[in-house]
Write a structure and sequence with these properties.
heterodimer, A: alpha+beta, 5-stranded mixed beta sheet, 17 strands, 49% helix, B: 125 residues, 5 helices
Chain lengths: 585, 125
């Protein structure tokens, strides 16, 4: 072994170092992407949490009409004189009757007002009320039996909110002739203003609530909300489909407990969240063929500005099945790339180990030449793979530049045909070019990258074609409105595999370039996955030939960079036609 | 002389490993995929099989699945040599009762010959 061998060896050691660092660069890039994705996930999660927080706040945010009326009545004496101001409000279970006495009155006075108010409310709502349903609260001055003064002045105003009568407000006095036009107008205006304000506020709350409901309904995540007794208040369609009870009418916590089959202790986790006021996040849980990450939160309502009160709990089921699948594919891809890089590298490493062991004088010329040949082929295949990986990462990062210049497409094809002729001969395959006589002399292409696409298509055709077959490389000028099958007839010879007519129906003026082979063909379902990056490496050509399998993903990226598209038409047992379309405008 | 069958589609690995094993005094035969490997196993009755995982036609794990059902030959010790280092692949190997798992790029030819010696002993013994 001469000194040049050592030079070569040290070159390959350096080469190994470089490619390893390229690989790590690539990995680093992948890691950054994973990080960016995670950040995206987190911000989406924050958004979802914000919605739920709002939902919780809304529950505690009910407009208290009674409070508003209380405020009005407590300040009314500044404008109007009265012995008593009172209101009667409808609540779901009873009638609230509240009277505030400015001056002491007889019990009969109180009873009289109450009866009058009941009467007018009945008239307004056209409904009978039972005296037993009235909850009475009297405040202010005391009732004195000696003051037997009847109601001499009386004025009633209906309380209307959102066009519905919710109660009446009354001022009354023992003096006669008090409430004239002026006082009545003031009172009317105050009440009108208040009811307007309440109505519009209620409108806001209603639309907000509708928005929140719509959001929850349409959320991709399953959302379940319960009160503090774990009764279900909300279970959106996604949550129902998690446990497979889409159509059940009254869904309860037991539906969840039964269908989760002990995989997640929803009741226990809710209890912990509600009682300890803390949130919880689960690991991935498999429920009915899908993976979920489950979040549990307490929901608080504002009692007032300072105090909060837990009013229930929320459970979110976030479907991570797709994320998991992508992660799995990514891991597989990484593992395949590592494998493909290690194989030639370990080959080179083993050869150098043998050369070192045996010593330069023991190696005969024949073995030496053979070893050099192996080093050459191993390093070439590794170099190809590293270049492919770099191209893929450039394409993914959008940094693959396409510089279009007018070029003769025939020349580019002829050049590639010449390059691949020897390997086609070795594989006992005929390789021919077929040009449309109506091809324009110049086509705007990035010549070097189009050559790369042709390299991928032609080398695949050689790899997969059966011995004795033919590979046709063709270029065609497609004119808008023409049928592709008619146009194919302009080629000097027939193609083994035709082109799908429907794919060319609404296509503008363009150049169609394709490689038609005589391989075993590809099933229709398999053709869909051909151009994706990850699937490829897993399905290596079964003929034992090497290749990164990234070629078609790269070709797709380049053609799309030209504004074009790539496709395949395959007939089982006949062959495949891989073609790409470049727009002319 | 003890006979070793190397089943691997990588010509460089075939070349170098068989060279090292021949130097250590073993007889070495080779197959370039699992299918050919099965034929050779039946015909040659090797003392040990060195098996790659990713190969055309029939991969390493599929090869082991078939070999395990073969009553005559399932006692032949198998040593996996692969460039996969993931625990899933190693575990798959262990489940199939292989005698060793060597990550090619991490280990030298010497490690492979040492592993072979430890499983079937030095040749002529």
């Amino acid at each position: 072994m001469d000194s040049s061998t050592f030079t070569i060896l040290s070159f390959f050691l350096a080469f190994g170092g470089i490619s390893a660092s390229i690989y790590f660069l690539w990995k680093d890039n992948q890691a950054k992407k994973a990080l960016a994705k995670r950040e995206e996930d987190i911000s989406r999660r924050m958004y979802e949490l914000a919605i739920l927080k709002e939902l919780g706040d809304r529950i505690g945010y009910s407009l208290d009409v009674q409070q508003i009326i209380d405020i009005i009545t407590s300040s009314l004496h500044q404008f109007i004189e009265y012995s008593a101001v009172s209101y009667m409000l409808l609540s779901p279970e009873k009638l609230i009757f509240k009277m505030h006495l400015e001056r002491s009155v007889h019990q009969k006075f109180v009873n009289d007002i109450r009866d009058r108010m009941l009467g007018s409310l009945s008239a307004l709502l056209d409904r009978e009320f039972n005296k037993k349903d009235v909850q009475e609260i009297i405040s202010g001055a005391i009732i004195i039996e000696e003051l037997d003064e009847p109601v001499r002045s009386f004025f009633n105003i209906p309380l209307v909110i959102d066009e519905k009568v919710v109660g009446v407000l009354t001022v009354a006095d023992t003096k006669a002739g008090l409430y004239k036009e002026e006082e009545m107008t003031i009172l009317y205006k105050i009440i009108q203003q208040a009811s307007k304000a309440v109505t519009s506020l209620q409108g806001v709350v209603k639309t907000e609530q509708a928005k929140v409901n719509a959001m929850v309904e349409s959320m991709a995540d399953g959302v379940v909300m319960t009160d503090t007794d774990y009764r279900i208040l909300v279970a959106n369609p996604s949550a129902r489909s998690v446990i497979g009870v889409q159509n059940k009418k009254d869904i309860t916590i037991f539906d969840f407990i039964d269908n989760l089959q002990g995989k997640f202790d929803m009741r226990g986790q809710l209890e912990e969240s509600v009682k300890l006021n803390k949130s919880f996040k689960s690991d991935e849980v498999l429920i009915r063929d899908k993976f979920y990450r489950i979040f549990v939160f307490p929901v608080s309502a504002n009692i007032n500005a300072l105090e909060k009160n837990v009013v229930g709990g929320v459970v979110i089921f976030h479907d991570v099945t797709a994320e998991r699948a992508i992660e799995e594919i990514r891991e597989q891809f990484t593992s395949m790339v590592v494998h493909e890089l290690r194989t030639p590298l370990s080959g080179i490493n083993k050869i150098s180990e043998l050369l070192r062991q045996e010593g330069p004088e023991k190696i005969d010329r024949k073995d030496y030449d053979h070893y050099i040949q192996l080093i050459w082929s191993d390093s070439s295949s590794m170099l190809d793979l590293v270049n492919d990986i770099l191209d893929v990462s450039k394409l993914e990062a959008g940094k693959f530049e396409v510089k279009k210049e007018p070029k003769d497409i025939k020349q580019a094809i002829a050049n590639r045909l010449e390059f691949f002729k020897p390997s086609a001969d070795d594989a006992k395959l005929k390789i021919i070019a077929l040009y449309d006589p109506e091809l324009p002399p110049q086509v705007p292409i990035d010549e070097s990258s189009i050559k790369q696409v042709l390299n991928n298509l032609i080398s695949n055709a050689i790899k997969f074609s059966l011995t004795g077959g033919t590979i046709d490389i063709f270029a065609l000028h497609h004119k808008a409105g023409s049928k592709i099958t008619d146009e194919l007839a302009r080629l000097p010879d027939k193609l083994t595999v035709k082109l799908p007519e429907d794919k060319f129906v609404n296509l503008a003026d363009s150049i169609v370039v394709g490689v038609s082979d005589t391989s075993a063909g590809i099933s229709e379902s398999a053709t869909k996955e051909l151009f994706t990056k990850f699937k490829q490496l897993g399905n290596k050509p079964k003929t034992g030939q090497k290749g990164s399998g990234l070629g078609l993903a790269i070709a797709k990226g380049i053609v799309e960079g030209h504004g074009g598209s790539i496709g395949v038409w395959s007939e089982l047992g006949v062959g495949s036609n891989f073609y790409f379309v470049l727009p002319l405008s | 002389m003890k006979k070793i069958l190397i089943i691997d589609d990588d010509p460089t690995f075939q070349e170098t490993t068989s060279g090292a094993l021949k130097n250590a005094g073993y007889e070495v035969i080779s197959a370039s995929d699992g299918q050919e490997g099965l034929v050779m196993t039946e015909k040659e009755q090797p003392n040990l099989i060195i098996l790659d995982l990713m190969m055309p036609k029939l991969g390493g794990i599929d090869f082991l699945n078939i070999l395990q059902k073969d009553r005559e030959n399932n006692k032949i010790p198998v040593l996996i040599t692969s460039n996969f280092s993931g625990s899933d692949k190693v575990n798959a190997g262990i489940e199939h009762g292989v005698r060793g798992y060597i990550v090619k790029s991490d280990e030298s030819l010497k490690t492979i010959t040492n592993a072979v010696e430890s499983i079937i002993g030095k040749t002529g013994e």
